[in-house]
Amino acid sequence: MSNLDRQAVPSLCGGRGFVVAEPVRELLSPRRVRLGESTEVRRLLPNLGRRMVGAWAFVDHYGPDDIADGPGMQVPSHPHIGLQTVSWLHEGEVLHRDSTGSLQTIRPRELGLMTSGRAISHSEESPRPHARYLHGAQLWVALPDSHRHVDPHFEHHADLPHVTAPGLTATVVLGTLDGATSPGTTYTPLVGADLTLARGAEARLPLDPDFEYAVLAMSGETHVDGVPVLPGSMLYLGCGRTELPLRAGSDASLMLLGGEPFAEEIIMWWNFVGRTQQEIEQARSDWMTGTRFGRVEGYDGGRLPAPELPPVALKPRGRVR
């Protein structure tokens, strides 16, 4: 999915200088962003208070939206470098096309994982006809310098491993959780899991104390380590945890995101993750001149133009603002 914000602001992220080394409970509020013509998302990362969680660098939560009388998601062809996109649905379907020739319908609780590597372009749209409701999350994972120029590719995994406890089912989206490992390709130590809790359930989820974590509330009422987390908000949890207490006040679902703190500093602007301003400028120029990113065949619409770069040089801002 694209960052369609026409006022795209570059920022220098990553590095270990602002990693919280102990457990915390930092509630992050979303920023509302219009995505295309018909979808509004709640952007949790990058946030005014925090820019990364491990290698997770971008998190949008959208829906549930009633799209019965509309086109649903319509995101034109757009470019990426230096990252992986993770498409995760609770309701609805998304049709993915990309410049490697991939064509895939992604359904609820199936992993759509696109590795941009050196360059890729893709589009996303609700199929015709489509389900009434659309609800999900779109996430980006920053690629480390050693792998950010890999060949672009797309993975679809419909069968993902689960971890269960009384009243809790955890689907392992990426990485490893409690001994269960996702088939999705990763390039840094991280974890992403979808947690489904039954009303009244209480559970303690095992965590890696070397990871930093955050929880995105997708639906329902959940207390995470004693903090109520409402749908569309994110609770940053810091590092140093061996377990995470959860209590559901209703049927609820969450996304657990974590990883080893990302040591490298990165520049993230629009749909690009790079290391220097010159690299970002070259990627924008290549997209606008129709080189390097290939073509997305079959999408009924034009390409998404890149916003203008800011007139000032990038300023280091670290992991937090």
Largest sheet, described in full? 8 strands, antiparallel
**CATH homologous superfamily title:** Jelly Rolls
Question: In the CATH hierarchy, what is the class?
Answer: Mainly Beta
Question: Taking all residues together, what is the mean pLDDT?
Answer: 91
Report the principal-axis shape. globular
Strand content: over 45%
Helix and strand content put the structural class at mainly beta
Individual helix count: 1
Number of domains: 1
Low-pLDDT residue spans? none
Which percent range fits the helix content? under 10%
Order of helices and strands: EEEEEEEEEEEEEEEEEEEEEEEEEEH
CATH topology: Jelly Rolls
The beta-strand count equals 26
CATH architecture: Sandwich
Rg, Cα atoms, Å: 18 Å
Instruction: For the record, give the distance between the C-alpha atoms at the N and C termini, rounded to a whole number.
Output: 24 Å
Characterise the protein shown here:
- One of its GO terms (molecular function) is metal ion binding.
- InterPro entries: Pirin, Pirin_C_dom, Pirin_N_dom, RmlC-like_jellyroll, RmlC_Cupin_sf.
- This is Pirin.
- Fe cation binds at residues 78, 80, 122, 124.
- It contains one helix and 26 strands.
- Helices cover 4% and strands 48% of the residues.
- The strands form five sheets. Strands 2, 14, 15, 16, 17, 19, 22 and 24 form an eight-stranded antiparallel beta sheet that branches.
- The chain has one helix spanning 277-288; strands spanning 11-14, 23-28, 31-35, 39-45, 56-66, 74-80, 83-91, 94-98, 103-106, 111-115, 120-125, 133-142, 153-157, 162-165, 168-177, 180-181, 190-197, 202-206, 212-219, 222-224, 227-229, 234-238, 243-248, 252-259, 265-269, 272-274.
- The mean pLDDT is 91.
- The chain has a single domain, classed as Jelly Rolls, CATH 2.60.120.
- It is mainly beta.
